[in-house]
Amino acid sequence: MRFLVCSLLLLSSVQAGAQTYFQQKVDTHIEVRLDDESHFLHGFETIGYTNNSPDTLRHIYLHLWPNAYSSDETRFTAQQVANRNTDFYFSKEEDRGYIDSLDIRIAGVQATPESADGLPDIARIDLPQPLLPGSSIKIETPFRVKIPLVFSRMGHKGQAYYISQWFPKPAVYDSKGWHPMPYSDQGEFFSEIGSYDVEITLPKNYVVMATGNCENAEENAWLDSLSKVPYLAPERPARQIGKWRDSVNSFPPSSGEWKTLRFHEDNIHDFAWFADKRFIVRKDSVEVPAGPGSDAHSVAIYSAALPSEQSYWAKATEYMKQTITYLSEAVGPYPYKTVKAVEGDLKAGDGMEYPTVTVIDRLASFNAVMETLVHEVGHNWFYGLLASNERDYPWIDEGFNTFYERRITNSIKLPMETREAYTSRVEDVLYFNAAATRSDQSLNNTSAAYTKGAYGFDVYYKAANLLAWLEGYMGADSFRAAMKDYYAQWHYRHPYPENIGQIFQKHTNKPLDWLFEGAIRTDRGIDFAIKGARIEKDSTFIRIKNRSHFAAPVRVDAYKDSNIVDSAWSLPFATDTVIGLKSTSATFWRVGNGVPDYFGLNNKYRRQGLLHGRKLRVNGGVGFGMRDNPALFLLPAIGYNVYDGVLVGVIAHNLTLPQNRLRYVLAPMFSFRSDEFAGAGSVGYWIYPRGAIREIVPQLDVKTFHFDSSSVYQTSVLRARYTKVAPSLSFVFRNASPLTPVTRTLTLKAYAIWEESIQFSLDPSDSLSRPHIAGNNFSDYGLLRYTHVNDRTFNPFSYTLEAQLGSGFGKLTAEGRLRIDYNVRGKALHLRGFAGKYIDAGSGAADYSRYWLTTSYAAANDYLYDGMYFGRSEQNGVAARQLSIQEGGGKVSTPGYSLPIGRSDNWLAGINIKTDLPLTSIARLYFDVSSYADAGKVNPSGSRFLYSGGIELHALRDIFLLHVPLIMSGDYHDYLNHMHPGTEFINSISFAIQFQNVNWLRLVSSAMKYYLN
Ligand SMILES: [Zn+2]
Questions:
Q1: How far apart are the CA of 462 and the centre of ligand 1, in A?
Q2: Alpha-carbon distance 434 to 430, whole Å?
Q3: 617-620 and 631-641: which strand pairing?
Q4: Tens-place pLDDT, residues 120-166
Q5: How far apart are the CA of 383 and the centre of ligand 1, in A?
């Protein structure tokens, strides 16, 4: 009996669930006037709010999104700053925006808005009377909007107006409750559906492109006449585009006459408008056939772009037409009577969608405008008609929309992509790389949970690829039927992921859990591998492994030469399966076509041949894109040091996107000065465990160059060589959230180093002291290093703790760096501190002095050979003045002394302070000070400190530094006076190339990080 009760309850709740769908109706009337001198909107809004829920509402939430631009303490600002966009943060007060002058009356009674959670862009309002199910209220308020400069979507640029998310607007209330949300840059919209009736008053010579139908006959006639004015697009010059654009796009004065335009549309969830006096208008129309919820009708198409961009916009209406036609047929009819696209500098990616009107940023090419037009117009379905919650489930709108954008742009660009095999796009490679480096994020996340990069490559590209996978597996007809059903059931409504899953499942007998429960939720890379092929009589059986960590289906194709002769889909399987194919004549098979499989190297199988037909491909330059074969890339290499002279060679590497797990960079080089080989190389293997450690990397670095030379009493130059072999193991720890900008690394490294030495001995034949190469001294060292790097946008910091051990000595060091940002963009105070303890383990020999802690770190201190120096044994000349910002971080060295000053075999501490300067982005002021054990006794002057300060020039993100000291310790002065009389100043200048501890195998990761930031 108990069982029966349970199942009855379950049954009734399922039915209740199916019936609980409701949606509020919100009808909005606004009268608004644009003040284009001080950039204000003066409006009055009347909202008709109908409670269709089964609940009695006692309060409502209103979005006041212009307030997102009111201070640098809004959620919008916090997110922009975290995403490294500080434009708004550093903006001037007068360029920001807000909404005020509200006097909210509900059913005639004044209501007081209270900010929700302290957020200025959400107001909570207690209703004077509870709003019963089925009843309506009228909410009225005047409002005033200060239009900000464009920082994110809404704003103005001169007298170009992009008016979106601009009026008080109720948050959605649905079966999941209230959805109040602050405005955000990364993360879009969710709004109630209803009718909009908006009257806009502004000077007469503005072209207004707004949501809905313009009801002024005179205005429509004017737009018609504008659209027929022949326009010769001004020719783009090759250079000084900015200057040319400004002159072509200059603003005409605003007309003294005013007009009031009335726009109306039903069944929409937002209203945006764009006003510009310079727009070149083009008009076209398209017939939309009848379908669910709408009769056959004509749609007026408008494009409006600035004069300078006409060449890129020449076919805009044509592309809009193709998009409307394609989606009306593939998904469901476009029910509205207008579709518009304007060009505007919206600062929201390449473009932004609003119901029936979209805005396209100024883009760099004809194709980019085409693709963005298709994308944004497509959003009329995926966010407009199928009004999902974009903020919480961003993949639903962007995924479906990107899926169709690709279909439409492919049909426009035919026959560019007619190949059957899966061809990866540039964008997909970003997702594949995230999967390959295990930094991918699940699609089951809200917008705010994504890194800026993942919001692009997961929400858009991975999602679009998953839908293409679903379509391949279901079959195009079933997929199309499901999409039409999705439209029929959910247009003008708020679908959730579960609703979509249910509809697709209705249209196929095959199970779809793998997509909606598996692929959508996984953050693990999708990877299938062919393990073998067996031909039996008239069939071929392909053994396939699923390495995706969830059950999923895959397609296998049989190829004869390069043509597909047979294909089959498996059912979803978790680990292994066998797929039978009828053809037996294939020369090879491939798995994963049409599947976003990030790892191509195991997708192809040939029965004969080494590695089943995989061949190493050798390419020039750098690599990019999906490959079935491993690739080796070759680049020319050139190097220089004082002893080898110019070295010429080749860089052989496999650094590519998506990144390999086995990575190598080898740079063998030849010196024509020494007639010998030299070079460096690294090879590492990336292991990605789950759990607390995200990367384990065993790595081997090797390096050999000459580091000293002598030609004293010699006919040929003698050169001493060092050779380093350094295996290491590093661990990168996982952060709790992918948004945390912290990298924590523990490295264990061992060094085996052979150094030849040049020694002098008396030649008995002529009694001259001649040099010779004496032996190959072997040293070994070990180190343990922990680094913590917090790369947050403001005030980033890092610290490194290190223990080194060599035979006869040990060293414990700590280094910290902190950048304190000034309240001026790009200007900061840079602090560095160092403290170290040297432990003498039995040898005080002079040879050991190079291991001691040092104030000014030069090549002679780099006994681990981790840096790059032009001259490792120089005491004079330019090469002798290369220093590194290590240990004490000092900028003056005294290599001419047999025991340079500022060294310690006990303890040493130093502080380096630098400040950026106004008016220059290449120069700073710096000051260094250090002290160490017995400094007062060791320093010739008896001073307990060494200091220097002056000007630093920096380039390439501080990799190259030049230091010009202006003040310095007396001990340094004395050295310069003594060693370089008359040229003290020039000899005090030093430079640094900060390449120590750079891991070349991480080069692509670093470049990606830089690019995605
Ligand atoms: Zn989009």
A1: 14
A2: 6
A3: parallel
A4: 999 999 999 999 999 999 999 999 999 999 999 999 999 999 999 99
A5: 9
